[in-house]
């Protein structure tokens, strides 16, 4: 048996075409899982052996169809990783209602849309592991991110509550809270601000998408984390929360 017991398990990752999601997809493939992933705009990953599905997490019907397509083609879904997310940063007085709605719809309602169609199936099968990607911003707040931090704090509340409900069905739910990870999401941050953030991180570097992927694999694993549910695993180089 492979150490993490994820081989041949069907796992869906939202936003798996780039960034953290792509690193999760790549690692799960290495671990022998059957991986499906969604993307919104374009697919840069195109990995052999994966099922890539265009689907916007804000579209409830599309997310229902994803679950049906994956189960038809690959079999019962064991793991789901709610990873897709966006930022639309601005200081609160300048934040538009559109910015607020877009971030909440994608990062929080999107998690709901992702989990809603698959959770009853997991309950029926008495098997499943859910991992939601939250953020250091959702734990401690961050300048210019009232919308984003609210969506990510909401995701923690959703995950912890779901864990309480799901336990009796043998289904686990956990969150991973990355600090600052080198992906496209960091690109809009000015260099000066990046230097300041870096000086606050005891491990003296930004995280890599792979750092997050390993935490996700641990939480998905029926072997490594069978007694872990309702938790938030921080992957942030001891950046204070
Ligand atoms: P990227 O910007 O690199 O990638 C975002 C991913 O989300 C893309 O795959 C994108 O798809 C997908 N996505 C965005 N909106 C939607 C949507 N409406 N429907 C479907 N897919 C969508 O970000 P990261 O990889 O850095 O972020 C991944 C997750 O990690 C996010 O939830 C983010 O909030 C979180 N996170 C990131 C941190 C960081 O420092 N990078 C820190 C803490 C948390 P497409 O390419 O098609 O647009």
TrEMBL record:
InterPro entries reported in the protein's UniProt record: NAD(P)-bd_dom_sf, Sc_DH/Rdtase_CS, SDR_fam
Superkingdom of this protein's organism: Bacteria
Pfam families reported in the protein's UniProt record: adh_short_C2 (PF13561)
Family: Belongs to the short-chain dehydrogenases/reductases (SDR) family.
Protein name as catalogued: SDR family oxidoreductase
Species annotation: Calothrix parietina FACHB-288
């Amino acid at each position: 048996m492979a150490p993490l017991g994820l081989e041949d398990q069907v796992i869906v990752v939202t936003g798996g075409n780039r960034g953290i999601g792509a690193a999760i997809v790549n690692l799960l493939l290495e671990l022998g899982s059957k991986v499906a992933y969604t993307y919104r705009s374009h697919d840069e990953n195109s990995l052999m052996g994966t099922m890539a599905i265009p689907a916007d997490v804000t579209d409830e019907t599309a997310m229902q169809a994803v679950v049906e397509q994956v189960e038809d083609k690959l079999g019962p879904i064991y793991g789901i990783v709610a990873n897709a997310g966006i930022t639309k940063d601005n200081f609160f007085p300048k934040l538009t209602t559109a910015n607020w709605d877009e971030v909440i719809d994608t990062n929080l309602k999107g998690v709901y849309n992702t989990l809603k169609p698959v959770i009853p199936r997991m309950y029926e099968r008495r098997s499943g592991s859910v991992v939601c990607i939250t953020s250091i911003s959702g734990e401690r707040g961050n300048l210019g991110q009232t919308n984003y931090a609210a969506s990510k704090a909401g995701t923690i509340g959703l995950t912890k509550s779901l864990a309480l409900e799901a336990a009796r069905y043998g289904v686990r739910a956990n969150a991973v809270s990355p600090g600052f990870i080198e992906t496209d999401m960091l690109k809009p941050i000015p260099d000066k601000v990046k230097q300041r953030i870096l000086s606050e991180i005891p491990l003296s570097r930004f995280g890599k998408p792979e750092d997050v992927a390993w935490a996700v694999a641990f939480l998905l694993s029926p072997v490594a984390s069978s007694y872990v549910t309702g938790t938030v695993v921080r992957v942030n180089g001891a950046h204070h929360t």
